[in-house]
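This section describes the prediction task in plain terms. A model, or a person checking by hand, is given the sequence of a single protein chain and must write out its three-dimensional structure as a string of tokens. No templates, partner chains or ligands are provided. The sample shown here is typical of the held-out split.
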Amino acid sequence: MLHSKTFNKKTRGGRIQKLVREVYLRDDIYCGASFCKSCEDKSKARLTAAASTILILDTNVVLNQIDLLENPAVEDVVLLSVVLQEVKNKNSAVYGRIRNLIDNPARRFVVFSNEFHRDTYVQTMAGESPNDRNDRAIRVASRWYQSHLGDAVKVLLITNDRENKRKATEEGVSAETIESYVKSLGQPALLDLLVQPASEDVIMEEVEDMRPSKRKVVYPEHKPMSEITSGLTKGIYHQGKIRVNRYNPFEAYVGSESIGDEIVIYGRGNMNRAFDGDVVAVELLPQDQWHEEKSLSIVDEEDDEEDVHLVPGSADDAPRTTDPVSSSTSDTSPVSSRPSGCVVGIIKRNWHSYCGSLEPMPMPAGSGSLVNALFVSKDRRIPKIRIQTRQLENLLDKRIIVAVDSWDRQSRYPSGHYVRSIGEIGDRDTETELVLIENDIDARPFSTQVLACLPPLPWSVSSEDLNKSNRIDLRHLHVFSVDPPGCKDIDDALHCTMLPTGNFEVGVHIADVTNFVHPGTPLDDEATQRGTSVYLVERRIDMLPKPLTEDICSLRADVERLAFSVIWEMTPEAEIISTKYTKSVIKSCAALSYVEAQARMDDSRLVDPVTKDLRNMNALAKIMRQRRIQRGALTLASAEVKFQIDTETHDPLDIGMYQIREANQMVEEFMLAANVSVAEKILKEFPACSLLRRHPTPTKEMLEPLLRTAAAVGLTLDFSSSKALADSLDRAVSDDPYFNKLIRIMATRCMTQAVYFCSGELSPPEFLHYGLAAPLYTHFTSPIRRYADVIVHRLLAASIGIYKLPTIFRDRPQLTSIADNLNYRHRNAQMASRGSVELHTLIYFRNRPTDTEARIVKMRSNGFIVFVPKFGIEGPVYLAPRGDKGGGEWFLDDQQQRIKKMDGSISYGILQAVKIHLEVVEPQPNRPKLQLTLV
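The expected answer:
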């Protein structure tokens, strides 16, 4: 039966467009119950005969109570298509989580297409809002389900909407609030999972506000969005993402395009309930309330949060630093060129689940009673979160996950709810899982649908593989790989053959992952979401299943493997004469580690073919590298740490800086060259839909810390171009052998993040990769580990006529969405790797107090931040007594980047070497930290 459906759609120009769609209504849509006597097709049955109650959820319950719905106690649930569509439109993250529940057969969640069933479709009535129409559709579907299934089961509509519940009851539909239903399950612990919405239209059944009765205003009210929009247009407010200082959670920065500078936000009062990562509207404070940057200080774990609030208009509303220790000079010269501001509204929240533990507290009388507790996030940038729990006794020694629900202006802390426990505090597996959850890393095993996409093992190259894709046979070549020791997911290999002309044929051979990962399959969808492999200290979390990463695609020695090859003819001066792109089959003759490759090149007695090829490639790589540097490529440095891990206990046995050899640089050079060549090829063929990687030029504000440091040590750095900066860094030398590396590490930290983008979104000048001084760049060389490379392989295959370009490349918004996800996943993988390093550093030093040398890299009013070269560790060292608000007897000379004692007897300067003591301490229960103190 055909039916016309009318709805309004807002166009890009702001006009309301009336659309009419024809809907085909059916009466054979399966209800999902295995015990149903009416429906014939039971192949997708999820609701079992054991179900005594079937739940139908309204939209707000799904949106707000997803943590509860993910608990196994909630089962036999019908999700109506009208609800799913609303959830998808309002919150894509919650939609993804509810889809995971639907896709899991064990959870008994079923989708019913009520919008296409003849008996449950409802038309919009005159004057009825879309929300009211959807609520009515939910009630109609609930009534149909009860009638359809009869007395075999109770159908219960779950809604916290007062009006919807009232109408359902009047219409003969059984309806309950989520709180009431959870109580009926007889599991009090489940009540901890409930979100308590703060809306008048929502029924609040159980939880009373257990805060103190004197409810004074702690924070200013957020401006309404209409006022914020108007203020942004007029330049009164400034929009940007707020970033909280990792060393001082009472200090934050908002990058504002409208004023071309970062706005500093001092104190939780001025942050006005903003969380790290929120998009906020900021109002500048009067200039006489701007703070000198020298007033910035290090805040310690023990510093009291109670003193950090001020509300404009209150008695405390005066310009002051909220840091526990501040510069003694800040009162004499408060004006600075650094704008300060306060948050007036939240444009977009960045709330998610947080990992940490409960603040220790005495056990209340009466087991299982509802108590208020304060949750302390592992991430110091996050304020304490007030939760209510009936499980205090079980949770005090656990790492737990908490979600934020709201933050009332009359409350010092945000309110949230308990989600789940991770494990015992201090357990390495628990702490590692915490790192993964904090950074939104999906470490779940691959689903059966994903694994079903893999070819059966053992896999080997067949004659059919050789005949497909115009694949050429390169098994006769001396192909070899050079990787970190113990590498199993080998996705690149090389060859270098001297030609009769005296030129070289050089090949970069990359695992042909797209031969096995096809667009639109569950395997491809999973890789799209994961985006990248994640490397922790003791393990790897794969983007693709292990049979692919370590066997079928891995270019291991002495086995035939499929590859995608870039082959150049090069002169002995490393000039490229021609480039060829082809699918191939190779047989690697050696899988070398960097150390092994370096040893071969250095041993003059070795003259075997692979060693000679290595030396030839290294000679070419050195020329290529020098030419790249002459073009302006930056040679930066990072504090990369390497652990030696005990194979049985997985505890760290040793820690040190990662050593870079010529062999590393050789491989890197040819991978860079392949990426550049592929970028040129795909952009030429597909100028509107190529996936490229850009590195934006750093702004002057970003480089300011490095400029100040350089000036303080007598260096002049030229930032007019990447070439000028590269030359400046080369000249930054002193008697100290570590001086240049420190300057390069500091320069690295001033850079913007490199990002993926769709070529059709930007103009060619914006394609520039600043760090590489390359006008074009992409990622092609690691498809086992990065989904970006999988996309680029498909583009390259289409550009040389092997395959048609997948349809997704015609959908620019979707391509942009994929690029955004890749950037998000890449950043999270980096942060997870760092978190893993920090965890294992704590484990290593737990019973190894150590004295060592460090270098001062940042000055603060109450001390400085040091970098420890031997261990790659960075952390704060205090000079002023803890809690001294005036900076004690120390004075910070911001211009000279030097902190001095008032009597002039002692001073410390930027980049100075100091002796420090490293020791793990626990100033607060369950919050161990590595403490650095001056010896």
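For orientation: Confidence is low (pLDDT under 50) at residues 204-213, 304-336.
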